[in-house]
Amino acid sequence: MKNGDKKFIGLDLDGVILNHAPLKIKLARKFGFKLKPEETPSEIMETIVGEQVFDKLQIMAFSDPKFFNSAPLMPGVKLALVSLKKNNLPFVLISRRRDSNIAISSLKHHGLWPKFFNEKNAFFVIKPEDKNIKAREMGVTHYADDVTGILEKMVDVKNKFLFDNLGAFENTKGCTRVKSWKELIGHFLK
Asked: Residue 123: which H helix or E strand, with range?
């Protein structure tokens, strides 16, 4: 599936396609934390709630299909995926997930599976480093994620984008910060 000099887009699921901020706020309240939306990115949230609570929240949010399916799509994502297809730009989903069935169920729930993602272009890995390995294997030239630590590990991807719709990050060393799908698709279509 490598494509030489053409653009090949890689996308993360959580925080790029699905908006988990409202869910994380709701779950954190159960543990006595009142989070603001800009405090819900994983890297920030863990420092606020602590590792033990964060691990419990992650399990609750990402292993329960009911909770996971309640996460809305990021604004503009469907229109952007239509635009990628219309412009013949290949794209893949590369997401960290222990149980891919929950992610696929959510993609189906939102009408993205199999219209945009399917067995041929959706990949689920375990470790952050595995995202880079899969991206290199596929020939990904542009990758969007909402976690700076993941983007730092994407050493084989030339164009990295931090999806920061909440304006939570200032330091974007080594990547381009985007706040919306409209802005992100503009970079992809250049």
From this structure: strand 122-125
- Contact 144/163 with Cβ under 8 angstroms? yes
Residues 15 and 146: their CA atoms lie apart, in Å, by: 6
Give this prediction's pTM: 0.92
* Domains in the chain: boundaries: 9-18+72-188, 21-69
DSSP string, 40-76: -SHHHHHHHH-HHHHHHHHHHHHH-HHHHHTSPBPTT
Domain covering 9-18+72-188: architecture: 3-Layer(aba) Sandwich (3.40)
Collapsed DSSP state (helix, strand, coil) of residue 179: coil
**CB burial string 93-124: b at 16+ within 10 A, e below:** bbbbbeeeebbbebbeebebbeebbeeebbbb
Q: How far apart are CA 108 and CA 30, in angstroms?
A: 28
Rounded to an integer, what distance in angstroms lies between the CA atom of residue 20 and that of residue 71? Answer: 5
Residue 149: burial class (beta carbons within 10 Å; 0-12, 13-18, 19+): exposed
State the Cα–Cα distance between residues 187 and 190, nearest whole angstrom: 5
Please indicate whether residue 70 or residue 120 has the higher confidence score (pLDDT).
120
| pLDDT digits 0-9 by tens, 74-101 | 999 999 999 999 999 999 999 998 789 9
